[in-house]
Specification:
Chain lengths: 284, 336, 328
Amino acid sequence: MSVASITAPGKRGPEWLTIPVCISLFFLLMILGMAVFGPMILGNGNELNPMMRLKPPSAEAWFGTDNLGRDIFARTVSGARNSVIVGVTTAALVLLVGGALGVIAGYFHWADMVLMRVADGLMAIPGILLAIALVSLLGGGLVTVIIAIAVPEIPRTARLLRSVVLSIRELPFVMASVSVGSATHKIILQHIVPNAIGALMVQATYVCAAAVLSEAALSFLGVGTPPDVPSWGNVVASGKDYFRLAPWIIAFPGIMLSILVLSINILGDQLRDQLDPRLTKRRP
Amino acid sequence: MTQPFLSVRNLSVSFGANGEAKVVNGVSFDLEAGKTLCLVGESGSGKSVTATSLMGLHPAKTTRITADRMELDGIDLLSCDEARFAELRGTKMAMIFQDPMSSLNPALTIGFQLREAVFLHENLSRADQDARVLEVLQRVRIPDPERRMTSYPHELSGGMRQRVMIAMALICRPKLLIADEPTTALDVTVQAQILWLLGELQREFGTAIIFITHDLGVVAEIGDDVAVMYAGSLVEKGSVFDIFDRASHGYTAGLLSATAEFHPGQTASKRLVEIPGSLPQFSNLPQGCNFADRCAFAAPSCLDRTPDWREVAPGHVTSCDQPVGAFDAPKKETAR
Amino acid sequence: MSRDMVMQTRDLVRHFPIGGKQKVHAVNGVSMEIAAGETLALVGESGCGKSSFARLIMGLDRPDSGSARLLGQELTQLRGAGLHAHRKAVQMIFQDPTSSLDPRWTAEAIVREPLDNYKVGTPDERRARVLDLLDRVGLGAHYAERYPHEMSGGQRQRLGIARALALEPRLLVADEPVSALDVSIRAQVLNLLCDLRDEMNLSLLFISHDIGVVSHVSDRVAVMYLGRVIETGKTFDVLNNPKHPYTSGLLEAVPRPHPSQRRERAPLDGDPPSPIHLPQGCAFRDRCPVAMEVCGRFTPALKPDAEGRIVACHHANPVKPELEPTHV
């Protein structure tokens, strides 16, 4: 029985467009809009205004101001760009590299030992420490931050994918595909990867969300993106000393961060279900 | 008239908060002490759910069980709560399952798990428990039982594990044993051993057995009475000879003729009789007789109205509108 | 043999190492042959090596020693393109119709996969061929767009059969093709398989533990026990007059089809020995009701007895000490 047959007849729109998905889509588009147009319209929000220090939200400064009198609204809107770039790029990088390594390790026994020992070694170091070490090694900047966040996530993703692939490759349909003469690369790309995509999507949304948070953490620690380019992380970092005095500095970018992560997670879950024919298409 | 040992009348079971999934539909049967009733059916026939309802194994929140009567040895099972069922399980009734490996804890020894079963119901000293465990392991013909008490489940073969499960079920001498496809996962030679053992134990202890299976060969081997289920409903009920010689429901007759059997002297490559179509989904049952669209003997009326129960012989009832004797069960060679 | 042999194996051996110096002796020297158009049933209990043997024949696994000739080609030496060509001639039907179909592929894509792999005809011809195959296995063209989960178990197994027949193989290996299906569905699928076999003049290696099914489907039977064939012959002969004590025990253990024929004596006792530590001599002797002293010393060879029946038992083929070497 499908969802559509339970809901009232005459309901418009496809059945995957549920209320949480609509809300998530709305917020995601809003944040993307902020990331693209924010800096053009509002600049970087770096204008100092000594007369307006630590002002609570008002008609003049919607989200209040920080200790240097910078407008939190402008900084939050503009900061979306950095956070989104870091989140999406890191997720894509981790997915591509970690996913490929995981599939190779899971399908080919000869690669498994080597790749997994390297992954174990990397995973023994706490992720944030590794990121800090990489940033100090490579110097600051957006690209460095992305690499620094991606590297500790890659072995985790590779490990997860490896275990998923290990269980898929033992299923009889893989053997069936071998016996009808499919080449190895076809089996991997057409049977293994599509069946691992659910796990991959969940992992991607997790990595994306974690990357936004890690970027914030790195900025908070002062090794993230340069302070003159706002990101939600360094806005929060700049507000940490004034938390009792001016909680709005932390609150607004924090709320945006939560909304972004939540939206990505909800959409990721929906995407996973959407990609699984067992959960979507039903015919009598 | 004396009350039968186990009596079930009009048992229905549905799952889901609103009872939307009706998986068992008005099942009635009796079982006498020391006899074996075979519940025969395919996947989705409701045979296992019928049995687990007797054991009180369904959470009350998500399951709706209704019946006119459900009595075991004078105990009204309908009025039992979870605590009462826990008391009855093991002492009055016990159950064995298809897969003995997943029913045993892999981290504990056989002896420990059996002692636990005794200890749950009777307060005995450790030495008495051990003696009891040893005795029951001997009863289920486990070779070298002293050594086996310290073995772990993975060290035993499938047949031995199923013997341990039987030992665990019988350790407190229940009056009713429910066996849910206990030999399906086993090889034929081991299946024969387990069936033989169950027969021996039944004669020894006078246990009544409800044997759930899809295999008519096993039914012929072990059943006294047979109840055939299809898509959640009982379709025919009678003695094992009634069913095998005088099957009067289209489904029973179809199953008997469609089963590939080996008959001595048979020349190879004989075409099998087919039952067309596929099993209905319980969420989408056809109108009228559930089996009508697959039945070789269906009349047009079978598609419209639910068939009545009729007694074709004393104790042999069928839910089929076709006149009795309109068709015969396929002839079977009797000599082997 | 004057007849055209589709498959011929000689002393095929496959041992799986399981750590340390131990190994599972899955296949211990199997010699078997299947003629064109013949159905050979491979009978035995779980762990007897029948599925491992099937994997060797399919080229999904390599033997440790021995030879396997398929259509005159030595399978054990095939690599790359040769193996690819070989796979076209030998196809398989799997036990579990659900897990042997990719849940993300439609019926059409599943049946089309082998045709695409071997570039059979133009894409349009392939599509026509897929629809024709679906039709032949009793699934109409409207099933082409369906996913496996939208079908019943019997329909899924029909789909598996269509995939196996797409390349018009010479030999079909069916590994317990109906044991996962509901009883009322089995006859349909078995009849379909037999009809298609006869139509396409296929050779069939039918792996099963179900004597009833085997008696209906096969021309010849090979009974396996602990990685060896212990008896082989015409289905009628083996099932009606078994020569090996294990075959007798196996047939005895099959439930009688009628309650009037209930067993009156205890069945064959015990379990097969572990395939890790093979016993010396005949593998069946621990359970054998007629075991002799010689059974513990020599492994009986599979050869014709006085009646011409092929069996590996010292009772059928008494050991002549002066002729037998001391090692086996």
